[in-house]
Amino acid sequence: MDLFQYDFMLRALVGALVIGLAAPALGIYLVQRRLALIGDGIGHVALTGVGAGLLLNRSPVLVAVLAATLGAVVIELVRAYGRTSGDLALALLFYGGIAGGVMLVGLSDASSGSLNAYLFGSLTTTSPGDLVTIGVLGAVLLVTMLALRPALFAVCHDEEYARVSGLPVRTLNLLIAVGTAVTVTIAMRAVGVLLISALMVVPVAAAQQVTRGFRSTMTAAMALGLFAAGAGVWVAATANTAPGASVVLVAIGSFLVVALLAAGVRALRRGRSAPATPAVEPAEHEVLLG
């Protein structure tokens, strides 16, 4: 039976494809800045927003957007101006966010199943309203990351050079932080806060195995993210597995396949370009033996 004849599966597929396309477009900047795990920290802050939304009987997604954005801005300001290292600030938000989320969900009338839906994703329960939110935010994020690619790359590659060049470094850094918060929020429905970073980072890591330039890496990462999202939802539909986990495992599997193929191609090229060992004539052999 074709499960994609049902509206909830179509919504799940469309939502996953949007996230699979947008997440690597933002994730490549985080990888460039060596902040691959920031999505985990912001995701846990978003969980506090979800708990607050459930407790106050407000939209958990909208409150999560506000909480994640605030957390992202705090991380960026601490990294730029504070004495606390970025890793320590991220750890504080990581543990504080998940503790606050668990506590607030416990104080609300929501069941533990509501918390699990945001921890591990619940793509098949995506409502038409959720799909509109994912589509609009994903489109805005994607257009922003593509339109500002030269400036964002300059800031991520060499912040001092970008500042000397006259770029608004502080504004661009905050834009990346807010973009990360938006990505985390829309991906929360697909893969859950515990697996968000994988969808932003793994396609980029796979693309780096076979590309060199930033633009080609970004394009390949978005294509791999799109494939992982679509194939993951198909695997979940046919094998009756969790969609979020299926998407992430397909992404990791793609990374392994790409890495192995790239290693094999490099080995073949080294073998072909290696100079042949010159044959030693008998007379030369005797001289070498002394």
Features:
mainly alpha; disordered C terminus
Task: Give a written overview of the molecule.
This protein is mostly helical and 290 residues long. It contains 13 helices and no strands. It has helices at residues 7-32, 38-56, 60-81, 86-107, 112-120, 128-147, 149-157, 159-164, 169-191, 196-208, 214-239, 243-273, 282-289. Helix 7 (149-157) packs across helix 9 and helix 11 crosses helix 12 (243-273). The radius of gyration is 23 Å and the shape is globular.
Give a brief outline of the structure.
It is built from 13 helices and no strands. The protein has helices at residues 7-32, 38-56, 60-81, 86-107, 112-120, 128-147, 149-157, 159-164, 169-191, 196-208, 214-239, 243-273, 282-289. Helix 1 runs parallel beside helix 6, helix 5 (112-120) crosses helix 9 (169-191) and helix 10 (196-208) packs parallel to helix 12.
Order of helices and strands: HHHHHHHHHHHHH
Structural class: mainly alpha
Mean pLDDT: 80
Inertia-based shape: globular
Count every helix, treating DSSP H or I runs of 4 or more residues as helices.
Answer: 13
Quaternary structure classification: single chain
